[in-house]
Amino acid sequence: xxxxxxxxxxxxxxxxxxxxxxxxxxxxxxxxxxxxxxxxxxxxxxxxxxxxxxxxxxxxxxxxxxxxxxxxxxxxxxxxxxxxxxxxxxxxxxxxxxxxxxxxxxxxxxxxxxxxxxxxxxxxxxxxxxxxxxxxxxxxxxxxxxxxxxxxxxxxxxxxxxxxxxxxxxxxxxxxxxxxxxxxxxxxxxxxxxxxxxxxxxxxxxxxxxxxxxxxxxxxxxxxxxxxxxxxxxxx
Amino acid sequence: xxxxxxxxxxxxxxxxxxxxxxxxxxxxxxxxxxxxxxxxxxxxxxxxxxxxxxxxxxxxxxxxxxxxxxxxxxxxxxxxxxxxxxxxxxxxxxxxxxxxxxxxxxxxxxxxxxxxxxxxxxxxxxxxxxxxxxxxxxxxxxxxxxxxxxxxxxxxxxxxxxxxxxxxxxxxxxxxxxxxxxxxxxxxxxxxxxxxxxxxxxxxxxxxxxxxxxxxxxxxxxxxxxxxxxxxxxxxxxxxxxxxxxxxxxxxxxxxxxxxxxxxxxxxxxxxxx
Amino acid sequence: xxxxxxxxxxxxxxxxxxxxxxxxxxxxxxxxxxxxxxxxxxxxxxxxxxxxxxxxxxxxxxxxxxxxxxxxxxxxxxxxxxxxxxxxxxxxxxxxxxxxxxxxxxxxxxxxxxxxxxxxxxxxxxxxxxxxxxxxxxxxxxxxxxxxxxxxxxxxxxxxxxxxxxxxxxxxxxxxxxxxxxxxxxxxxxxxxxxxxxxxxxxxxxxxxxxxxxxxxxxxxxxxxxxxxxxxxxxxxxxxxxxxxxxxxxxxxxxxxxxxxxxxxxxxxxxxxxxxx
Lengths: 236, 274, 277
Fold this sequence. Notes:
The complex is a heterotrimer. Chain A is an alpha+beta fold. Chain A has one domain: Ribosomal Protein S5, domain 2, CATH 3.30.230.70. Chain A has helices spanning 2-15, 89-105, 129-143, 171-176, 203-235, and strands at residues 19-21, 31-35, 43-49, 52-62, 75-81, 115-124, 152-159, 165-167, 179-186, 192-198. By secondary structure, chain B is α+β, with helices and mostly antiparallel strands. Chain B is 24% helix and 27% strand. Chain B is built from four helices and nine strands. In chain B, the strands form two sheets. In chain B, strands 1-2-3-5-4 form a five-stranded mixed sheet. Chain B is globular, with a radius of gyration of 20 Å. The relative contact order of chain B is 0.16. By secondary structure, chain C is an alpha+beta fold. Chain C has a single domain (32-276), classed as GHMP Kinase, N-terminal domain (Ribosomal Protein S5, domain 2, 2-Layer Sandwich), CATH 3.30.230. Chain C has helices at 2-8, 10-19, 100-116, 148-162, 212-217, 245-276; strands at residues 35-39, 47-53, 56-67, 78-84, 125-127, 131-143, 164-170, 177-186, 194-201, 205-208, 220-226, 232-236. In chain C, α1 crosses α2 (10-19). The radius of gyration of chain C is 21 Å and the shape is elongated. Classes of the chains: A alpha+beta, B alpha+beta, C alpha+beta. At the A-B interface, loops of A face loops of B. Chain C: Pfam families: RNase_PH, RNase_PH_C. Chain C: Residues 31-166, 193-256 form the Exoribonuclease phosphorolytic domain.
């Protein structure tokens, strides 16, 4: 399995096979993904949404430190590395969000007393960073071949001063917005796994944003499906 | 200075408003009645409020309030030692950690433990160790955590009392309680249980006989387990000071006993008549 | 017997209670623990509050210091909140720098302050570009029995309401600030955000205000922060199992009533402190 991954990554790099989803819909920016681009981790992916780009690497299941061992499931660690400098309190809070989302979808009980490490390296932040991190994380977990009960994706919505909802905002749009909501949506029931918000908003706006995110998630899940199908159709 | 990435950071530098005070604070009188109305050169300790067993998560806990000095202590253990190389097969390990809340002093403190905190932690540990029957807890460790919520002087003395009370509340076997008392020598006169201001001001600057003294005392064994003094004091005033501190500890004893008895009664109510 | 069952099979133990629509501590599923508030107990701080939700105890002390405003926002002061979970409050926390939970809680408090606009940092400015206040809001957990976020928000809000800042003028000759500590003024609090935390048990059962024991067993946690106008300041759900729309609505409704209860409590305590003086 690992040798296959290595070969695949080489061919991907050479041919520059970055898959890109067309930006026919104005809702989401152009997004793309490349899997198995790193040779050292057990699974890796880079996810690009407009100019926002996150690189993810998964290590594991591997041996776990005794102090972190959980007897009935795997220990998942998530590390978020910012573009510059050391991780701060903000990155720690993102780590918590990504980790608990992954924990909900991964079948950790299949690998008791082992460790999983997910490293997210921010390459560029141009808004919707948390949702891009979530998408990269999901693709990397898929690439590592870890058993999951469902997939998940992240969608960020911004509410601007006029009350309009912008999905997948850029950094400039984020700055002008009145509120910013990020959700993680699961692939089976389209329910909200994670929610992280900034700014104040009404209940109605929250519900609207959730609905918009659920709709946008369809597109991302379809992209997941297409990219995986294309990748494996070549080898199988 | 390395930046702390694990906390929310503020501006690089900030100063306490007290630095720019219009009127300088009035100097403390070096004779006569003390600022809080207590008597000088007498065994006038602040009234103490003590409670046991406040923290639900801890094995034992205690809270002490003397004047405005407020601190609490939690005891965890005996439990397995975290570091295997430090495991002692014959004897338990006692650890003490004393911290000041950032808002506890007139000047804001840092979250990071200062060297003073570490000194206090060590002195606390050394004062408590002789009183705990550590040979009864082989291969395990007992953790004592003290948090100073408000520092209004004599912190170490009260921390010792509070910690021994928490140890007792946790049901750790001990030879005796440890009580703490401190005095401040200021020239010819002295003040018992000094406040923060009294501790940090030198009334008569040029005089020699200046210093602080904290005694940890085992009341029923009549032994001293910890003695800490700083400043310059004559031999006579030092011995007198120790004697005064011991008397101060005896004054504290009934209050502490009552609090402990109350906690025990609450934990195990006497069997009802039926 | 019951204690042994609880230690050996904590999940089954709690399930057996939830089956009967109650909790192991005798509460109903949607019942908060008693919340008590003590304001202004720390005299060394500029504002302080101690909050107890059941056994969970959080103390907040606010210290104001003077600093130069940043170049980017010369007309604004600073708010620096930090949450600490010292080893004193529970055996699950280690000594040393704050762990992930404490850091995530600090970030959450930062977000709540910003989102709710409870304080206008413009009010903390003394002279544009020269001098402003820094409010260090240090929150410390003294007893960790679950739901520390709710307790932190209440402690912060009450402590800010208790805060008094001395009057500061800049001396035109020396260009140094002059502090008159006799004249003090209160902070203006624009909004009163209050949080309500929920837990999801076994992927489906919604419980409110979880204890430390319950927190370990939960499959997801959710904190909803609302202000007095019913606007949402934060819907914080860091992962975990999913939540349906109806359940979320239920949580929001409960959070709104909770906000009213807590604001009433804070007002009452502040009133009693005033009359006592």
